[in-house]
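ARCHIVE CARD
Drawer: 12
Card no.: 0347
Subject: one protein chain, sequence and derived structure
Cross-reference: see card 0346
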Amino acid sequence: YPRWHTSETQLSEFNLTETEAMLGSYTKVLFVRDPFQRLISTFLKGMSSSPSFSSFVQEVLDSGQHNTSTAWKPLVSLCQPCLIQYDYVVMFGFLRQELGHLLQRAGLPRDSLLPKFSDTQVQRTYSWLSEQMFSELSLQQKQQLSHFYRWDLVAFPFPSSFLSD
């Protein structure tokens, strides 16, 4: 199946039989991140012209789930975890531990290929930042965001997410 290996080919271009065969022949890894942290990251990267985080969140909410950017679109709609049986789900915040396990399973040296990063430090920074950004939002925005990302919050364990409350 030579067209399987072209970078321009999208999964949606294959028929059901080809899709099932292809997905069955690959190790499927899904990287997930707390949706609120994804919003913060997108805002901080300057992917919005909004002057404040609160106005950026309002833009996201006003865009709706179907017309929204992939940068903040709910993961469930992007990755189809109910339809695709992923072999691994890797949570942001546990990258070093989980990537080491993946490398070991692939028969590669566990630590030699991993970048140097500290999950604990990243988690503390995002916890503080999340708290600050969350406090900028109105009660209505908080409730709407929880509703916007409700399926991500059900599908993936984000116990410390501000949107889970």
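Annotation on reverse: The helical segments are 16-25, 35-44, 53-63, 75-79, 95-105, 119-135, 139-148, 150-155. The chain is about 50% helix and 5% strand.
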